[in-house]
Amino acid sequence: MTDFQFMQKAQPTVALFVSDLHLQASLPRTTAAFLAFLQTHAARTQQLYLLGDIFEYWAGDDDLATPYNQQIADAIQAVHKQGVAIFWIAGNRDFLVGQGFADAAGLVLLDDPHVITLAGRTIALAHGDAQCTDDHAYMAFRAQVRQPAYQQQFLAMPLAQRKAIIEGIRKNSQDANQNKTVEIMDVNAGAIDQLFAQTGTRVLIHGHTHRPALHHLGDGEAQRLRYVLPDWEYDVETPRGGWISLTADGVLHRHGADGAEIG
Ligand code: LP5
Ligand code: MN
């Protein structure tokens, strides 16, 4: 390797983007992989963006009483205390995360979508579920459960009852998804165009679809880049996972489950 190549590689990481970990106590290897990611890669960056579905589900901030949830919050807080700024965009599983969790984890809640300018790049960030507009049943469900009044009513129920209801919705969702095509559950091209137009950006990073990719849309001046994050699952024979990093030279890099860069 020449000195020049070495310098190219040595660019410091300014931000990391990750989503769809679906953390739960019953997935110890996935949990361990996230804790290791926090202590190594995340601790060495300036900003960490958690882009939705970090938890399998979130029933309300009073569920921080569950030791597993507190452990995750503590681990994120530890990275924050090392000087890393941490940001959170809600997913369709954990949109009930509120200021209580944000304070416990030392992170800042952002709206979806959110635009950042960092290392000379302007990037739109989203979970990705709002762009799945062909999935009419989901969009109707989403419109209902994202209403503040509806959420307040739900959060007023005892925690055990909320968890039972969520388990019911999860079952319903799993059954419904078996009858949906892959296309219906992917983002809609028009909704993506609209997001680019609305945010005035040319680069988007999102998750949700579990279809990791880099899509080049359009040509020349009109070119747009859509980065899709992978979901994580380490409690299986062939682990899935990974993240995206932004280095100080303004380059975005895709990383796989073992952290290696994807070409
Ligand atoms: O999550 P995933 O990958 O399975 O599928 C999603 C969409 N499903 C969901 C539901 C979540 O899995 C579970 C929600 C947890 C929320 C926690 C808080 C709940 C608070 C409620 C009040 C404020 O997001 C799925 C999409 C898929 O992504 C791909 O985009 O297709 O959408 C659906 O499955 C929606 C169904 O089509 C319709 C769901 C109707 C639910 C009916 C409720 C039944 C209530 C039973 C109560 C016992
Ligand atoms: Mn999701």
Automatic annotation (TrEMBL):
Residues 16-212 form the Calcineurin-like phosphoesterase domain. Keywords: Cell inner membrane, Cell membrane, Hydrolase, Lipid A biosynthesis, Lipid biosynthesis, Lipid metabolism, Manganese, Membrane, Metal-binding. It is an enzyme of class 3 (hydrolase). One of its GO terms (biological process) is lipid A biosynthetic process. One of its GO terms (molecular function) is manganese ion binding. Coiled coil: none annotated. Substrate binds at residues 92-93, 135, 173, 177, 180, 208. InterPro entries: Calcineurin-like_PHP, LpxH-like, Metallo-depent_PP-like, UDP-diacylglucosamine_Hdrlase. Pfam families: Metallophos. Belongs to the LpxH family. Hydrolyzes the pyrophosphate bond of UDP-2,3-diacylglucosamine to yield 2,3-diacylglucosamine 1-phosphate (lipid X) and UMP by catalyzing the attack of water at the alpha-P atom. Involved in the biosynthesis of lipid A, a phosphorylated glycolipid that anchors the lipopolysaccharide to the outer membrane of the cell. NCBIfam families: lipid_A_lpxH (TIGR01854), PRK05340.1 (NF003743). This is UDP-2,3-diacylglucosamine hydrolase. It comes from Herbaspirillum frisingense. The lineage of its organism: Bacteria, Pseudomonadati, Pseudomonadota, Betaproteobacteria, Burkholderiales.
